[in-house]
Amino acid sequence: MSKRLFIAFKIPSDLKNELLLVQHKIKNNLELKGVNWVKPDNMHITVAFLGQVDEKVVPQIIDIMNSVNFKSIQVKGEGLKFFNKNNYPAIFFYSLEVTDELKDTVGNIRENLIKKGIDFDRKNFNAHITIARIKEEFDGNLLFKFVNEKKTFFESKKYSINSLVLFESKFVDNQPIYIPLHEINQEV
């Protein structure tokens, strides 16, 4: 039997609350029907998307996570941005500066996955937290214009990433649910 898996950093509650405020500010100013807002509990920073994985491989993935000697990482926000698809904004996200510490941790995990022959999406690591997925071009353009006119919703500051998690992704009633299968938590 297989599971849909990914490894991610859990975001701290102070950052999650600030991103939730961003969502509320936008919702209070714009009526967007073609936008799916990410639930706060689903916000994370993807390290490696593994896709469908035989559940027999899960212990190997956990061993890899345990072997990287994960320590808390400081991250700093770069601002609100968009990924485009078909020439219109499709993903609204909060971008993070890729520090050496962050790059080394992600690189170490991905290197160990490769060594063990565990496949994952090999796109370049892009440190970000998805805030919304945009389905309609009109809403995407409206949101893009609104965010760029406002420029800053909150001040980018440093945050501590204290948790590395192996998540299983399931869809229930067309909504993603992320179930933690293994967590390394360095919170003090």
Automatic annotation (TrEMBL):
Motif HXTX 1 mapped to chain: 44-47
Top-level taxon in the UniProt lineage: Bacteria
Key word Zinc-finger present: no
Residue ranges of the motif HXTX 2: 128-131
Catalytic activity: a 3'-end 2',3'-cyclophospho-ribonucleotide-RNA + H2O = a 3'-end 2'-phospho-ribonucleotide-RNA + H(+)
Domain Phosphoesterase HXTX: 11-86, 97-178
Gene Ontology MF, one: RNA 2',3'-cyclic 3'-phosphodiesterase activity
Enzyme class label: hydrolase
Family: Belongs to the 2H phosphoesterase superfamily. ThpR family.
HAMAP family associated with the record: RNA_CPDase (MF_01940)
Protein function: Hydrolyzes RNA 2',3'-cyclic phosphodiester to an RNA 2'-phosphomonoester.
Protein name: RNA 2',3'-cyclic phosphodiesterase
Gene (name only): thpR
